[in-house]
Amino acid sequence: MITKKQVEAFGSIETPFYFYDMDLLRQTLDVYKAQIDKYGYNAHYALKANANDRIIETIRNYGLGADCVSGNEVKLAVRSGFDPQKIVYAGVGKSDKEIRAALRAGIFSFNCESVPEIQIINDLATGMGKKARISIRVNPDIDAHTHKYISTGLKENKFGISPWGFQDVAELLAQCAHIEFLGLHFHVGSQITELPVFALLCRRVEELQRWFIEHGIPIRNLNLGGGLGIDYQDPNGDPVAHFAEYFDIIHKNLVVRPGQKVHFEPGRAIVGQCGHLISRVLYVKVGKEKKFAILDAGMNDLIRPALYQAWHDIENLSSTGRKLRYDVVGPVCESSDCWGQKRLISQCRRGDLFAIHSAGAYGQVMAMKYNQRDLAKAVYSDDLK
Ligand code: LLP
Q1: Cβ of 189 less than 6 Å from ligand 1
Q2: Given 137, 168, 176, 377, which residue has the most CB atoms within 10 angstroms?
Q3: 4-17+273-384 is classed in which CATH architecture?
Q4: CA of 59 to the centre of ligand 1 (A)
Q5: Buried b (16+ CB within 10 A) or exposed e, 293-326
Q6: Measured in angstroms, how far is the CA atom of residue 12 from the centroid of ligand 1?
Q7: Mean pLDDT, 10 residues at a time, over the chain (385 residues)?
Q8: Where do the structural domains in the chain lie, given as residue ranges?
């Protein structure tokens, strides 16, 4: 919840900008940390969700590791002080350069997404006289019931190795002297709000890990990825993701064998609600059938609505007056640059400050300079106190 005092402070800041409520981030991390400690689970924050220095420093201070999907994310994680032993690295297209750099950094695990990738990692590790720790990212063929662009666990998706590839994996592992096999990795999608999906995932994990164990390949680690959704509809009323319910489902449904370690890779659920895109109304355009509120923030600042038809709550921070219906749009020359249609919002005027909520995850980090627009800067609540 953005306070009155914060809105006053926004008055002198150039818009659009990202505002991060660091108290909410810490509150979210308090709840998350208590949950993983309760069950003895390990967590690696998915840097891709938000890689701002101040955000990742806060997360690292809670003892989380880092989940990376590129060589530069691995570099960033190391530079930001994450223990390499807590860095995991996934991605279907790791380049040789990226693999070498991660080997040099001594990361905890490569999450391998294809059989040829395992071979290349072994070859490169051999050349460097190193041993690479790897896990297999498994494609469990599960429908995460989320947007198709952020669904990753179906057999038609490009991610992971499907069960029919397990025999090849087993044969290859037997030949790879420079690979240490840790276990299995899963990530079936993002913004998953139907929690039974995670129960189904746990049951699939058990079926799939059994194959390896029966073939004499021990599984020391199970990494269930990220994916827990947040409440985009009611960010003020429901600001902390439902971690207790999530971990309860995992705990009740996942078979963990003695000595096995369980890992997670949360992204959105940690940072999603602490970020808000703050913008000003440039113009109110009244048409015959509708009213447009034209903001100075556009799809280049936050691409989720244009890319995934994502719904973000929009609030007029400058007025609590009578609510009217507006199509809220941005200035970019694309019709998809639309924040929401027929939104009920307090009557607005030029200069009013708007918040587009739940913008902490996959917001600033996906911003671009399309139309040669400036990149929105970050403002942290700690600096406004
Ligand atoms: N682990 C892996 C291997 C991933 O690919 C992802 C996200 C995560 C963990 C973290 O997932 P989360 O807890 O944040 O759901 N740009 C999209 C989301 C893309 C997610 C990519 N992978 C969006 O704005 O909705």
Answers
A1: no
A2: 137
A3: Beta Barrel (2.40)
A4: 17
A5: bbbbbbbbbbbbbbebebebbbbbbbeeeeeeeb
A6: 34
A7: 96 98 98 98 98 98 98 98 98 97 98 97 98 96 80 81 95 97 96 96 97 97 98 98 98 98 98 98 94 98 97 97 97 96 97 98 98 98 93
A8: 4-17+273-384, 65-265
